[in-house]
């Protein structure tokens, strides 16, 4: 089964999500998350799109203000017709930075679900990358 159109749609979904980050706009950032989405980051679990939105709004108003995020997809696999899992390498760039420092790089897992013909983010998880010396 050729999934090229689905792959293109998922890449576009992530690009739009990160445009929300670049704009420091929490509503735009979570617009393509399902209502029951989860986000797990070191030390925290956010159990809904609203909780993810609130967390991002606080971040954009504080420590994430002016930041952007980089996310390089490593793999994408489809699970049935309406689900996909991506693994990526990611990190946050703060104003003035051209590259994410090794200690802030993360490995991320994205779970996508196709609802009513539209791909959405159902879950996200990240953990620090292993820094090699």
Quaternary structure annotation: single chain
Tell how many strands the DSSP assignment holds: 6
Question: Looking at the structure, what is the overall shape?
Answer: globular
What is the radius of gyration? 15 Å
Ends apart, CA distance between termini: 42 Å
Number of domains: 1
How large a portion of the residues is in β-strands, by DSSP E? 35-45%
Structure description:
The protein contains three helices and six strands. With 133 residues, the chain is α+β, with helices and mostly antiparallel strands. The protein has a six-stranded mixed beta sheet. The longest helix is centred in the first third of the chain and has 19 residues, at 4-22. The relative contact order is 0.19.
In short:
With 133 residues, the protein is an alpha+beta fold. 28% of the residues lie in helices and 41% in strands. Strands 2-1-6-5-4-3 form a 6-stranded mixed β-sheet.
Write the layout of secondary structure elements.
Blueprint: H1 4-22, H2 26-30, E1 33-41, E2 44-46, H3 49-61, E3 68-78, E4 83-93, E5 106-115, E6 118-128
Parallel strand pairs: 1-6
Antiparallel strand pairs: 1-2, 3-4, 4-5, 5-6
List key phrases describing it.
Nuclear Transport Factor 2, Chain: A; alpha+beta; six-stranded mixed sheet; 3 helices; single chain
